[in-house]
UniProtKB/TrEMBL annotation:
It comes from the Eukaryota. Residues 116-136 are annotated as: Disordered. Its EC number is 3.4.22.-. GO terms for cellular component: cytoplasm. Residues 127-136 have a biased composition (Polar residues). Cysteine protease that plays a key role in autophagy by mediating both proteolytic activation and delipidation of ATG8 family proteins. InterPro entries: ATG4_LIR (IPR046793), Papain-like_cys_pep_sf (IPR038765), Peptidase_C54 (IPR005078), Peptidase_C54_cat (IPR046792). It catalyses: [protein]-C-terminal L-amino acid-glycyl-phosphatidylethanolamide + H2O = [protein]-C-terminal L-amino acid-glycine + a 1,2-diacyl-sn-glycero-3-phosphoethanolamine. This is Cysteine protease. Belongs to the peptidase C54 family. Residues 1-258 form the Peptidase C54 catalytic domain. It comes from Sapajus apella (Brown-capped capuchin). GO terms for biological process: aggrephagy; autophagosome assembly; lipid metabolic process; mitophagy; piecemeal microautophagy of the nucleus; protein processing; protein transport. The lineage of its organism: Eukaryota, Metazoa, Chordata, Craniata, Vertebrata. Keywords: Autophagy, Cytoplasm, Hydrolase, Lipid metabolism, Protease, Protein transport, Thiol protease, Transport, Ubl conjugation pathway.
């Protein structure tokens, strides 16, 4: 499940930097952004989305090292790790109680431009009002790219057939990143469907360890499908899943909301809810921010020289959040 979470996040980062239409070609020179994405996932303690960081962050979610993760736990781990990832600058929203709140997402993703971050840099209120009346966007909020994860329980011991059509509709959405899930004892990354069969990538293949080469690139052969994707009947799916969506711009999120209202909320037994306002009986929504943590610096290390200064026998991931 940790690897499946990495797959979904990697797909989001590709959409973020390279575009949804980008595709990998073997032995072709790739953009520098692509190489930098790969380095986020290397199996090293100092890489922000490494297996080490994900497992360690899972401790804060009540999962000991080596304990199996579910889709929701992985989603919570990615949400926390993204706070330390300034380059990709993703806003990660994980829905609660099968409910996506539009107001909360827009509050989290709308950020002021850097030039308007400090009070001294802001123009007087009268000027701001004047600019707005003229329709300028100099101080309009920017949109932080959104990774939206919706953990769901679609049945008790097996998926309820009433959710099948809505589940498949999610794969059709242009914002889709697929779904995390599987069947008992096996986690898969689902990327589409054909009829009543789900198409998935299987992470249960041992690969040779890969690290950055002398020229700064990464041998990427094992980061891509070495075998054809597999298929399974949708009714064999474990009912615990997490849907993923990526909205690079606010208009992408608005379009997603329209599609959900049209395709998902039309069902009598809804797979999840989409509401405009934050429910009054919920705790107040506070956009997540990078916390002050006790750390020995793993997430900030940029070079091997810095690593050599540390005692490599010690753990140096994030210790507490």
């Amino acid at each position: 499940m940790l690897r499946c979470g990495q797959m979904m996040l990697a797909q989001a980062l590709i959409c973020r930097h390279l575009g949804r239409d980008w595709s990998w070609e073997k032995q072709k020179e790739q953009p520098k952004e692509y190489q930098r994405i790969l380095q986020c996932f290397l199996d090293r303690k100092d890489c922000c989305y490494s297996i080490h960081q994900m497992a360690q962050m899972g401790v804060g979610e009540g999962k000991s090292i080596g304990e199996w993760f579910g889709p929701n736990t992985v989603a919570q781990v990615l949400k926390k790790l993204a706070l330390f990832d300034e380059w990709n600058s993703l806003a990660v929203y994980v829905s609660m109680d099968n409910t996506v709140v539009i107001e909360d997402i827009k509050k989290m993703c709308r950020v002021l431009p850097l030039s308007a971050d400090t009070p001294g840099d802001r123009p007087p209120d009268s000027l701001t009002a004047s600019n707005q009346s003229k329709g300028t966007s100099a101080y309009c909020p920017a949109w932080k790219p959104l990774l939206l994860i919706v953990p769901l329980r679609l049945g008790i011991n097996q998926i309820n057939p009433v959710y099948v059509d809505a589940f498949k509709e999610c794969f059709k959405m242009p914002q889709s990143l697929g779904a995390l899930g599987g069947k008992p004892n096996n986690a898969y990354y689902f990327i589409g469907f054909l009829g009543d069969e789900l198409i998935f990538l299987d992470p249960h293949t041992t690969q040779t360890f890969v690290d950055t080469e002398e020229n700064g690139t990464v041998n990427d052969q094992t980061f891509h499908c070495l075998q054809s994707p597999q298929r399974m009947n949708i009714l064999n799916l474990d009912p615990s899943v997490a849907l993923g969506f990526f909205c690079k711009e606010e208009k992408d999120f608005d379009n997603w909301c329209s599609l959900v209202q049209k395709e998902i909320l039309k069902e009598n037994l809804r797979m999840f809810e989409l509401v405009q306002k934050h429910p009054s009986h919920w705790p107040p929504f506070i956009p997540p921010a990078k916390p002050e943590v006790t750390t020995t610096g793993a997430e900030f290390i940029d070079s091997n020289e810095q690593l050599e200064e540390l005692d490599l026998e010690e753990d140096f991931e994030i210790l507490s959040v």
